Amino acid sequence: MTAEIAPVIHPLRIADARNRLRHVFVRDLVLSCSIGVHRHERHAPQRVRINLDLAVRDEGADLRDDLGNVVCYERISDGVRDIVSQGHIKLVETLAESIARMCLDDARVRSVRVRVEKLDVFPDAASVGVEIERFPPSV
Questions:
Q1: Could you tell me the sign of the dihedral formed by the alpha carbons of 23, 71, 88, 46, in that order?
Q2: Which of 53, 122, 132, 137 is 20–30 Å from 113 (CA)?
Q3: What residues does each domain of the chain span?
Q4: Model confidence over 97-115: pLDDT tens digits?
């Protein structure tokens, strides 16, 4: 299928010093995914594009240049790859919710926005999908 290349999605303005928030993001992660409700969608993987925006508690402390002191976008990206590899998913909404839950497993994450797009559904559309925003459960 051919479609125009989608415009670049620019990061949201989440970083906020007054509210002690750091913005961690993953842009345009394109993966092959077994996804869809239709029978023909079970026979071959489809390309999905995933974008993530995390509002992360920023303690303002010296990070000591230590990866353990930040929310690691590599760990987040690997977690998304793991979720996608676990088997067929019917709905993009289900995939988005699973990704959001994984991101919120880190207590420093105050909110997550997940956008999941199927890229090859309609020849006259660059993508279709869903975007959600989630917060950690109340304590």
A1: positive
A2: 122
A3: 21-134
A4: 999 999 999 999 999 999 9
Q: Are strands 46-57 and 128-134 parallel, antiparallel or unpaired?
A: unpaired
Tokens of 58: 């920023």
Tally of CB atoms within 10 A around 123: 8
Per-residue DSSP letters for 31-79?
Answer: EEE-B-SSGGGGSS-EEEEEEEEEEEE---S--TT-GGGS--HHHHHHH
Q: Rounded CA gap, 5 and 88, in Å?
A: 26
Per CATH, the number for 21-134 is 3.30.1130.10
* Nearest residue to 34 (alpha-carbon basis) of 97, 81, 84: 84
- Per-residue pLDDT at 51 exceeds 60: yes
